[in-house]
Amino acid sequence: MTTIQDRSLLVLIVDLTPEKWGQRSQHRMASDKARSRHNKRSVGPATLEDTLSSILSFLIAFSSCHRDNTFVLIGAAGNEVGVLYPRKDRMGEVVGELGDRSVDLIEMREGLMLGAAEIVGRCVRNPSKQGTSIVAAASLALCIINRFMVSSGNKESTAESLLHRKEDKGILGMISKRASKEGESAQKEATEERLEQRRARGMLSPRMLIVQASDDYTPQYNSFMNVVFAAANNDIIIDGCFIPSGIPNQPKTSTFLEQACDRTGGVFSKPMGSAQVQGGLTEVFMTVFLPPLGIRNELNLPKVNTVDFRARCFETGASLDMGMVCNLCLSIFKVEPKGGYCLTCGAKISVKSDDKSSNGTSKEDSANKKPRLEN
């Protein structure tokens, strides 16, 4: 176990989408009422109040682990994204090596509740049908981490960064590395070595924790994976906590978060049932996500044994083994979109099919072939 104590920088993103939390609250009330008739305890799901209370306890514990630990809390709801803590008037004080990083518990609680209420209120006034802006929040988190690293003098030079960076082949490279155990092990060892060097030099160890309650929004997949690749190239760990609702026909996990955690070497957890209530969610945060990066190898933390890397249809969200790709924005579809236009970028899509004059096959044979999409 390393003897160097981590100085951690944590950016926590919490999903505040009022529609999803409202559904959970109604389901919780009905479930608790039915179970109370039989003298049974609640089995969730967690409400927004439960989640914010657990996050508050987690952040207090995190700031107590090291005097230089720093955290930023970001809220996301619909198209609305904002920093909940520290507030705007204190952001400049917190950033920087000589900044005031002391935590006022009353100020933190008020900032969390006030900021969450502001974002939820803006989301209610301007509702969105395009999912939760987890991608925008994660992009903001990367910018904040970079600002902290530069201000505190912990940012690596461009030359050092290029020495650490290797060719990235995106999704295909990620899939191929999963298939090669040797490549995966070598990559993990190299990342751990760089993190150990960063700790030895007294540099901040940045990480991101995403607490998500909404469904994955498939059209944001490309953007989200760009954020993940950027985090991986800069040795930023992404942890993920998906809170299932327990409502029938609603997802029990987040494929996006699973891939992000797998790619960056983070921890993924999806507490279900009673693990979300009566302090269970607080226990998950404390035991799974609180340990610093330097001691995680010594702990028996949750692991995702199988990660689904299959592409998803941008229209239906279904996983695909074969589909059509828009060669302008790389959106993936199971069948040709209605109207002949890409649903993501709006470009005109033309389907080319080979005829007998070009390849010597009959029209019946060519009709059975998969068409190509071209813009």
Q: Quote the average pLDDT.
A: 78
Helix content: 40-55%
Helix/strand/pairing class, anyone? alpha/beta
Query: How many strands?
Result: 12
- Count of runs of 4 or more consecutive helical residues: 13
Q: Radius of gyration over alpha carbons?
A: 23 Å
What global shape is seen?
globular
Low-confidence stretches: 157-169, 175-183, 355-375
Helix and strand pattern: EHHEEHHHHHHEHEHEHEEEEEHHE
List the helices and strands and how they pair.
Layout: E1 8-15, H1 18-36, H2 48-65, E2 70-77, E3 80-85, H3 88-94, H4 105-125, H5 134-151, H6 158-164, H7 170-179, H8 181-200, E4 205-212, H9 221-233, E5 237-242, H10 255-264, E6 268-269, H11 280-289, E7 311-312, E8 319-320, E9 324-325, E10 332-333, E11 350-352, H12 356-359, H13 363-367, E12 372-374
Parallel strand pairs: 1-2, 1-4, 4-5, 5-6
Antiparallel strand pairs: 2-3, 7-8, 9-10, 11-12
Summarize, please:
By secondary structure, the protein is an alpha/beta fold.
Question: What this model shows, in words?
Answer:
With 375 residues, this protein is an alpha/beta fold. Helix content is 43%, strand content 14%. It has 13 helices and twelve strands. Helix 5 (134-151) packs parallel to helix 9 and helix 9 packs parallel to helix 10 (255-264). The model is unreliable at 157-169, 175-183 and 355-375 (pLDDT under 50).
